[in-house]
Write a structure and sequence with these properties.
The chain is mainly alpha-helical. It has one domain (about 5-130). The protein has 4 helices and no strands. The longest helix is centred in the last third of the chain and has 30 residues, at about 100-130.
């Protein structure tokens, strides 16, 4: 598969996983499924991801753990939380950013945005019969 195709596929997978994170979060708090509510929950994280995708050069190394996966993860969380605080989303008992939400979001988005890349690289290596070298930083191209 061409790098350009992987770039689009990686973008779609990332967006689907971020939306899934929002769906899971809303459902775990008993919030009804409504497109506008889902958008309100997801857009801060999607904005962070979009910034990360551009700044990390993700389209040229879409399956790279570093910088693509890690930058996508960190900026998705950081920008997403900043937007939520700035817009007053998720304020609980006067606290605009409960630490429990920050921890859960960081872990889940890390597993989602870095984890699927690790699995994809592993599957591609197994399928190609290539044994990974110790510390091999090369991304699938």
């Amino acid at each position: 598969m061409e790098t350009r195709t992987w770039g689009w596929l990686a973008a779609v997978v990332d967006v689907v996983l971020i939306v899934a994170f929002a769906v899971i979060g809303r459902s775990s708090h008993g919030e009804a499924f409504a497109p506008l509510g889902l958008w309100t929950t997801a857009y801060p994280f999607l904005a962070g991801w979009a910034i990360a995708y551009v700044t990390s050069g993700a389209w040229s190394r879409p399956l790279a753990i570093w910088p693509t996966g890690v930058v996508a993860w960190i900026l998705t969380v950081f920008v997403g939380m900043a937007i939520r605080v700035a817009t007053g989303q998720g304020v609980v008992d006067g606290n605009p950013l409960p630490i429990s939400f920050l921890v859960v979001a960081t872990i889940v988005l890390g597993v989602f945005l870095v984890g699927w890349r690790l699995l994809a690289r592993l599957v591609l290596r197994v399928r190609s019969g290539r044994r990974p070298a110790a510390g091999d930083p090369e991304a699938v191209r």
